[in-house]
């Protein structure tokens, strides 16, 4: 089912779709970050993916582009899942917000900003959500120390 | 029947007897208030399938004394931005009207002391009910003052809520018992008790069921008990108007609440259940009735959720007040016919 | 020209009825809420970052502490996610699947009991709180007999379960589900018909179906707005497709509907647990995947392959193929999602937890704007949030 959706998506936005991967029965579509809002709006309105389950960021330190923003979508009517990914480079660490498409993205994007430092353009209220308001640094980045700033690392074995 | 003892026939005995009566009543009410806290915790505990206080003394009976001592020794905190005079005055302003209302409640018939008749009532005002309603109205000053002087938004909301609530329900409560005076043709509590004496069927609860229900509910609202305990709604306002109070002043607020409960229970028993003129001889009557009503108040606290503020106002003005007026009209019509 | 003066009140992180450390900045006009802004993050412990430094087996106890009122649900989501990542979902033995469903439903009842207790306490009915916690003690006993801990059970394992059921456990579970409907009737008797309760909850905290889907609401809150979606039925996991249960929906979308719906969900859970008990058969409890699941102790002491596997799993951990998956389960509070990325090493490269309470709390401001202060409390209660999950 989701193959059909992906095929249609490729037809509508051939330049936007970069990659399609199928793994363990799930489809992941990587798109260009400039077209993310258009693709999301298309998927919501035309393809019926009206529920945004999750929006998060991933830090691939050492790979260019460094960050990836991942959107996990769900179609309530057909009960199907789809994953969208958009690569975000470290230098221009920003991407358009999809709060206009699904309001639920609001807090998820705030968390992504808080944890990774990925700025969301036109977000209604982009500020830190889990860390204190005046925190410096983006904790979930791979180069951020586990024990936090200004502390000695844990001396025992973690794993 | 020997003469009534008064200031003119034997002033020294009169003053002695008066002093004894005041002391007895005061001590009894304080004891009831203290043990009402214990009873509440025990009864609500058992209703909630737990035990309540058990460690302090046998069966936890010394718990009120332990609580009193604890509160006495706690640090007395006055917030720096609070208006000090009002802050300290507020608990007293709640407690005093609660206690002085007891002055007109009759506890029994007449006894003979030293050749004179002495009524078992501190003061038999011929406008007893009016006095009680007036004192109840004074109680709200304390709450509002507490809320305002604490310099805390939550206390302010609690105080304002309390003011609006008590004023609304006082009107309904007062009007609901007008029918009782119409039947007894007197405002004095002693007269009302006498009008109900004779047999149990004379009790006004049978001839005025609507007034009884109305007065019961509206007086619970006046004393800020569940389901009308919005001013101190713990889960919403973190203790409401008494948030900033500690130590003895906090204790005084809660003594005032239980004292109010005692007074209202006594009042309902006097107005509707015949007061001391009951099935058993002597003072035991009024005590039984008061304890019975206090048990019902405690039971209601364990069972009911809290009413919302606007629903409270709605009920007070649009339901109870018209019903009370209707009751007066019906009673008047029945009396004339 | 009317000057509207609003008072800003802080329902601070410490408050008797915010169900944890939630801060709500409310702007009040009298008693009406004009604006509400929730602030979270007081319980942030960095669980997602911690899992990146632990192997898959060792990251499991961290998930217990997310929604600490429904620990086995979090465990279930995690092990299902890792199993999906490994591709061994079909190899899980039947007995393990049945026990997983049984404990997931027991956990659902546990979570809903706490919800009812705190919701009723906030609205003023103190007695229901104590009754619910009395029943919860029975569930805590079940947890303790099974996993050793009352709350943070850490019972499931990747590939099955850690321990088999102790002797006589089915008896205890049966006793529990036989007693439960009677208790539910007690709660209903105390609350459902009570005029005060109905006035406090009917029409309060209303949200429409379209708004709910848009804001990301899941779980009972969404189903009570008329959206018929339950992951147990629609995207079944751990054998849920074999069970016969109703998905409880309501049309009204207000607090009273959510209250009755969750009570009915508890009854449905009792039915599912009964079906689990009927379905329980003897068999292995761990999948036969030697490089993932720890071998039984007697094999470790006698066979060299088992010893090697044990050694490798404990010291190094297993290494799934690189890839990413998303596993969502129907936790008591909504859709609990685990998005996991593996880069071929023994630790998860990224584990994102999609907490239902986090997203449900987003709906709070629009549900309480225009309501009274007392309704704020009722609405927070009905959304059933737990801060451990929101803040991770």
List the helices and strands and how they pair.
The complex is a heterotrimer of chains A (159), B (337) and C (392).
Chain A: H1 2-12, E1 17-23, E2 26-31, H2 36-45, E3 51-59, E4 67-75, E5 80-88, E6 94-96, H3 105-116, E7 119-121
Parallel strand pairs in A: 2-5, 6-7
Antiparallel strand pairs in A: 1-2, 3-4, 4-5
Chain B: H1 11-47, H2 63-73, H3 84-100, E1 110-113, E2 116-119, H4 128-149, H5 153-176, H6 178-184, H7 189-195, H8 204-207, H9 209-222, H10 234-237, H11 247-272, H12 284-303, H13 309-336
Antiparallel strand pairs in B: 1-2
Helix pairs in contact in B: 1-11, 1-12, 2-11, 3-4, 3-11, 4-5, 5-9, 5-13, 6-13, 9-11, 9-13, 11-12
Chain C: E1 7-11, E2 23-29, E3 32-39, H1 47-51, H2 60-64, H3 71-86, H4 94-123, H5 126-147, E4 156-157, E5 160-161, H6 169-191, H7 195-201, H8 209-215, H9 220-223, H10 231-234, H11 255-279, H12 297-302, H13 304-315, E6 323-331, E7 334-342, E8 350-354, H14 356-362, H15 364-368, H16 373-383, H17 387-391
Antiparallel strand pairs in C: 1-2, 2-3, 4-5, 6-7, 7-8
Helix pairs in contact in C: 3-4, 4-5, 4-11, 4-16, 5-6, 6-11
Provide an overview of this structure.
Chain A is α/β, with parallel strands linked by helices and 159 residues long. Chain A contains three helices and seven strands; from the N terminus they run H-E-E-H-E-E-E-E-H-E. In chain A, strands 1-2-5-4-3 form a five-stranded mixed sheet. Chain A has a two-stranded parallel sheet with strand order 6-7. With 337 residues, chain B is mainly α. A two-stranded antiparallel ribbon of chain B has the order 1-2. In chain B, a hairpin with a 2-residue loop joins strand 1 and strand 2. The mean pLDDT of chain B is 82. Chain C is mostly helical and 392 residues long. Helices cover 49% and strands 12% of the residues of chain C. Chain C is built from 17 helices and eight strands. In chain C, helix 4 (94-123) runs antiparallel to helix 11 (255-279) and helix 4 packs antiparallel against helix 16 (373-383). The radius of gyration of chain C is 22 Å and the shape is globular. At the B-C interface, helix 5, helix 10, helix 12 and helix 13 of B face helix 4, helix 5, helix 7 and helix 16 of C.
């Amino acid at each position: 089912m989701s193959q059909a959706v992906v095929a249609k998506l490729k037809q509508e936005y051939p330049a936007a779709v970069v990659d399609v991967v199928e793994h363990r029965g799930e489809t992941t579509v990587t798109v260009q970050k400039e077209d993310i809002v258009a693709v999301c709006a298309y998927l919501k309105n035309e393809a019926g993916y009206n529920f945004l389950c999750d929006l998060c960021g991933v830090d691939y330190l050492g790979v260019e582009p460094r960050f990836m923003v991942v959107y996990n979508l769900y179609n309530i009517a057909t009960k199907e899942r789809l994953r969208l990914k958009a690569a975000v480079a470290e230098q221009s660490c920003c991407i358009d917000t999809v709060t206009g498409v699904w309001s639920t993205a609001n807090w998820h994007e705030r968390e992504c900003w808080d944890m990774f430092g990925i700025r969301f353009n036109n977000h209604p209220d982009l500020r830190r959500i889990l860390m204190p308001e005046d925190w410096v640094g983006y904790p979930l980045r791979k180069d951020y120390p586990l024990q936090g700033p200004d502390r000695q690392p844990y001396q025992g074995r973690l794993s | 029947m020997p003469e009534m003892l008064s200031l003119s026939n034997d002033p020294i005995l009169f003053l002695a007897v008066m002093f004894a009566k005041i002391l007895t009543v005061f001590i009894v009410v304080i004891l009831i208030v203290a043990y009402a806290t214990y009873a509440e915790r025990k009864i609500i505990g058992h209703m909630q399938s737990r035990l309540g206080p058990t460690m302090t003394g046998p069966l936890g009976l010394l718990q009120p004394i332990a609580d009193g001592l604890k509160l006495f020794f706690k640090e007395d905190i006055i917030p720096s931005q609070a208006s000090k005079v009002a802050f300290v005055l507020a608990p007293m302003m709640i407690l005093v009207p609660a206690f002085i209302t007891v002055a007109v409640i009759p506890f029994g018939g007449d006894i003979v002391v030293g050749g004179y008749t002495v009524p078992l009532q501190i003061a038999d005002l011929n406008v007893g009910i009016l006095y009680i309603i007036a004192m109840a109205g004074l109680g709200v000053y304390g709450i509002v003052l507490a809320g305002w002087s604490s310099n805390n938004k939550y206390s302010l909301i609690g105080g304002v809520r309390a003011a609006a609530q008590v004023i609304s329900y006082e009107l309904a409560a007062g009007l609901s018992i007008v029918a009782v005076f119409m039947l007894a043709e007197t405002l004095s509590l002693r007269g009302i008790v006498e009008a109900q004496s004779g047999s149990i069927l004379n009790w006004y609860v049978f001839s005025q069921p609507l007034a009884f229900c109305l007065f019961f509910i509206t007086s619970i609202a006046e004393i800020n008990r569940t389901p009308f305990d919005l001013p101190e709604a713990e889960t919403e306002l973190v203790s409401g108007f008494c948030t900033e109070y500690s130590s003895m002043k906090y204790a005084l607020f809660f003594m005032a609440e239980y004292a109010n409960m005692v007074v209202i229970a006594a009042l309902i028993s006097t107005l509707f259940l015949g007061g001391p003129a009951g099935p058993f001889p002597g003072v035991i009557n009024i005590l039984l009735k008061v304890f019975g009503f206090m048990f019902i108040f405690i039971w209601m606290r364990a069972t009911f959720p809290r009413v919302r503020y606007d629903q409270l106002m709605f009920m007070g003005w649009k339901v109870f007040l018209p019903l009370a007026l209707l009751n007066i009209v019906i009673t008047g019509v029945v009396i004339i016919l | 020209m009317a000057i509207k003066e609003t008072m800003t009140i802080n329902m601070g992180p410490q408050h008797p009825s915010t169900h944890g450390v939630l801060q709500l900045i409310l702007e009040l006009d009298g008693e009406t809420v004009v604006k509400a802004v929730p602030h979270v993050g007081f319980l942030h412990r960095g669980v997602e970052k911690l899992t990146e430094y632990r192997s898959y087996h060792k990251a499991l106890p961290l998930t217990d502490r997310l929604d600490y009122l429904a620990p086995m649900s979090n465990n279930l989501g995690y092990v299902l996610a890792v199993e999906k990542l490994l591709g061994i979902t079909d190899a899980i033995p039947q007995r393990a699947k049945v026990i997983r469903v049984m404990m997931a439903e027991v956990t659902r009842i546990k979570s809903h009991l706490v919800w009812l207790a705190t919701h009723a306490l906030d609205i003023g009915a103190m007695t229901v709180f104590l009754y619910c916690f009395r029943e919860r003690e029975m569930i805590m006993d079940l947890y303790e007999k099974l996993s050793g801990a009352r709350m943070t059970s850490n019972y499931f394992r990747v590939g099955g379960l850690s321990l088999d059921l102790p002797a006589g456990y089915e008896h205890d579970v049966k006793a529990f589900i036989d007693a439960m409907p009677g208790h539910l009737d007690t709660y209903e008797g105390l609350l459902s018909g009570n005029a005060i309760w109905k006035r406090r909850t009917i029409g309060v905290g209303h949200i429409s179906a379209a708004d709910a889907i848009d804001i990301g609401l899941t779980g009972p809150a969404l189903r009570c707005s008329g959206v018929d979606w339950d992951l147990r039925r629609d995207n079944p996991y751990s054998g849920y497709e074999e069970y016969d249960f109703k998905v409880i929906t309501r049309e009204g979308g207000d607090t009273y509907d959510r209250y009755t719906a969750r009570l009915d969900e508890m009854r449905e859970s009792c039915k599912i647990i009964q079906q689990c008990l009927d379905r329980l058969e003897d068999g292995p409890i761990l999948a036969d995947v030697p490089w993932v699941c720890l071998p039984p102790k007697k094999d470790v002491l006698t066979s060299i392959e088992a010893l090697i596997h044990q050694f490798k799993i404990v010291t190094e951990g297993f290494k799934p193929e690189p890839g990413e998956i998303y596993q969502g389960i129907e936790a008591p509070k909504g859709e609990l999602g685990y998005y996991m990325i593996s880069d071929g090493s023994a630790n998860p490269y990224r584990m994102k937890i999609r907490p239902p309470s986090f997203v449900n709390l987003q709906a709070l401001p629009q549900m309480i704007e225009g309501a009274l202060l007392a309704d704020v409390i009722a609405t927070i209660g009905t959304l059933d949030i737990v801060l451990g999950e929101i803040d991770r």
